[in-house]
C-alpha cells in the first residue's frame, strides 16, 4: 500500500509538472504571435490590430473577403513584417545559443559572444565596409560577417584542440583572448577610416540594428537558423547529463568530446547567421535563458526551445521600443538591449554571488 501511495504521488507530481510546462509552451507561442502583431501594427503610422490581422492572414493566403487599403498593406508586408521576422529569427538564434552555451560551460553568466563568434562576425563586416566590398554588392556585408564568425570559432577550436589542458575553462579564456584581438583590429580600421560616412557605417553596424531589413534577409537566415535550432534542441538530454560533470555524463552514455564540439559548432553557426544580418546584439543570449530557467527549470530538453521563443519575443519587443521611444529618431536595437540587459545582468551577478556566499 505504501509503495502504491508513493507511486500515485509521483505520477500526480509528474502530471502537474507536464501540465505546467505545456501551459508555458502554449503561452510562449501565443505571446510570440501577439508580439509580432503588436510590432507590425505600431510605428509612425499606426494600423488597427484588426486590420493588421486581416492583412497578415491575406499574406498567408487566408482570405476573409475584406479589402484593405494599399498603404497599410505595403507598410506591413514590405516594411515592418520582414524586419519583425528578422528580429524573431535573430532573437531565437541568440536565445537558444545562450542556453546551450550556459549548459555547456555550466555557468549562467556565459553567452555565445564569449567564444569569439560575435567579434569574428563583427570583424568580417568591418572589413567589408573598410575595404569597400559593400560597393560591389550589399550582400558582401552579411557574407563577410558570417565568414568572420566561422573563422573565429574554427581558430578557437583549433587552438583548444592542440592545447594540453582541453577543459571548458581554457576554451572560454581562448574566446576572451580572440575577442580582445579582433576588437583591436577593428579599432585600427575605425581609426584609419577614410571618411565620416565609412566611420558611421562601421559604428552603426557594431551597435546592432535591424533597419532596412527585407525579405531577402529573411530568406538568407531562415533555414540556417531554423535547422540549427532544431538540431541543437536534440542535444537537451546530453546537456542535462553534462551538468553533472564529464565523468558522470560519460558513464551515462554521452560522448562528451563529440557533444561539446557539435554544440559549440551549432551554437556558433546560428549565432554567426544572426550576426550576419543584425550586427552585434548583446545580452539576449545571456538574459533570456536565465529568465526561462527561472520559469521552467534547468531541463535543457525544454529550456532550449523555450529560450528560442523567449529570445524571439524579447528582440521583437526591444526593436519595437527602439522605433517608438523617441520618434521620429530610431535607436539601434542593440542599444535598447544593452539598456534593458545591463541592469538585469548586474542583478544576475549579485544574485549569483549571494548564493555562493550563502553556500
From TrEMBL:
<feature type="transmembrane region" description="Helical">
    <location>
        <begin position="302"/>
        <end position="322"/>
    </location>
</feature>
<keyword id="KW-0472">Membrane</keyword>
<dbReference type="InterPro" id="IPR000522">
    <property type="entry name" value="ABC_transptr_permease_BtuC"/>
</dbReference>
<protein>
    <submittedName>
        <fullName>Iron complex transport system permease protein</fullName>
    </submittedName>
</protein>
<feature type="transmembrane region" description="Helical">
    <location>
        <begin position="81"/>
        <end position="101"/>
    </location>
</feature>
<feature type="transmembrane region" description="Helical">
    <location>
        <begin position="212"/>
        <end position="235"/>
    </location>
</feature>
<comment type="similarity">
    <text>Belongs to the binding-protein-dependent transport system permease family. FecCD subfamily.</text>
</comment>
<feature type="transmembrane region" description="Helical">
    <location>
        <begin position="169"/>
        <end position="192"/>
    </location>
</feature>
<feature type="transmembrane region" description="Helical">
    <location>
        <begin position="261"/>
        <end position="290"/>
    </location>
</feature>
<feature type="transmembrane region" description="Helical">
    <location>
        <begin position="21"/>
        <end position="42"/>
    </location>
</feature>
<feature type="transmembrane region" description="Helical">
    <location>
        <begin position="113"/>
        <end position="133"/>
    </location>
</feature>
<keyword id="KW-0812">Transmembrane</keyword>
<dbReference type="InterPro" id="IPR037294">
    <property type="entry name" value="ABC_BtuC-like"/>
</dbReference>
<keyword id="KW-0813">Transport</keyword>
<dbReference type="Pfam" id="PF01032">
    <property type="entry name" value="FecCD"/>
</dbReference>
<feature type="transmembrane region" description="Helical">
    <location>
        <begin position="139"/>
        <end position="162"/>
    </location>
</feature>
<keyword id="KW-1003">Cell membrane</keyword>
<keyword id="KW-1133">Transmembrane helix</keyword>
<feature type="transmembrane region" description="Helical">
    <location>
        <begin position="329"/>
        <end position="350"/>
    </location>
</feature>
Amino acid at each position: 500500500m505504501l509503495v502504491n501511495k508513493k507511486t500515485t504521488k509521483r505520477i500526480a507530481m509528474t502530471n502537474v509538472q507536464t501540465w505546467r510546462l505545456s501551459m508555458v509552451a502554449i503561452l510562449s507561442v501565443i505571446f510570440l504571435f501577439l508580439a509580432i502583431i503588436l510590432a507590425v501594427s505600431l510605428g509612425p503610422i499606426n494600423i488597427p490590430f484588426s486590420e493588421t490581422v486581416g492583412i497578415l492572414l491575406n499574406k498567408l493566403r487566408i482570405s476573409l473577403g475584406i479589402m484593405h487599403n494599399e498603404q497599410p498593406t505595403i507598410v506591413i508586408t514590405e516594411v515592418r513584417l520582414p524586419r519583425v521576422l528578422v528580429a524573431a529569427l535573430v532573437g531565437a538564434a541568440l536565445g537558444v545559443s545562450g542556453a546551450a552555451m550556459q549548459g555547456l560551460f555550466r555557468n549562467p553568466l556565459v553567452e555565445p559572444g564569449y567564444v569569439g563568434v560575435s567579434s569574428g562576425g563583427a570583424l568580417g563586416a568591418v572589413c567589408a565596409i573598410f575595404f569597400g566590398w559593400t560597393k560591389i554588392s550589399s550582400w558582401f556585408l552579411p557574407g563577410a560577417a558570417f565568414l568572420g564568425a566561422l573563422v573565429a570559432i574554427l581558430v578557437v577550436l583549433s587552438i583548444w584542440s592542440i592545447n594540453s589542458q582541453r577543459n571548458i575553462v581554457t576554451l572560454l579564456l581562448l574566446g576572451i583572448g580572440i575577442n580582445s584581438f579582433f576588437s583591436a583590429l577593428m579599432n585600427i580600421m575605425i581609426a584609419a577610416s577614410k571618411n565620416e560616412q565609412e566611420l558611421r557605417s562601421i559604428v552603426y553596424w557594431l551597435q546592432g540594428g535591424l533597419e532596412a531589413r527585407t525579405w531577402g534577409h529573411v530568406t538568407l537566415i531562415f533555414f540556417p537558423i531554423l535547422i540549427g535550432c532544431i538540431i541543437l534542441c536534440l542535444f537537451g538530454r546530453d546537456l542535462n547529463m553534462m551538468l553533472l560533470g564529464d565523468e558522470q555524463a560519460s558513464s551515462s552514455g554521452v560522448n562528451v568530446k563529440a557533444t561539446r564540439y557539435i554544440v559549440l559548432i551549432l551554437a556558433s553557426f546560428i549565432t554567426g547567421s544572426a550576426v550576419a544580418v543584425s550586427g552585434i546584439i548583446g545580452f539576449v543570449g545571456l538574459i533570456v535563458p536565465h529568465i526561462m530557467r527561472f520559469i521552467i527549470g534547468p531541463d535543457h530538453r525544454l529550456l532550449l526551445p523555450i529560450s528560442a521563443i523567449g529570445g524571439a519575443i524579447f528582440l521583437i519587443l526591444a526593436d519595437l521600443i527602439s522605433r517608438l521611444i523617441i520618434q521620429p529618431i530610431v535607436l539601434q536595437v542593440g542599444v535598447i538591449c544593452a539598456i534593458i540587459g545591463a541592469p538585469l545582468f548586474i542583478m544576475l551577478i549579485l544574485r549569483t554571488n549571494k548564493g555562493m556566499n550563502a553556500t
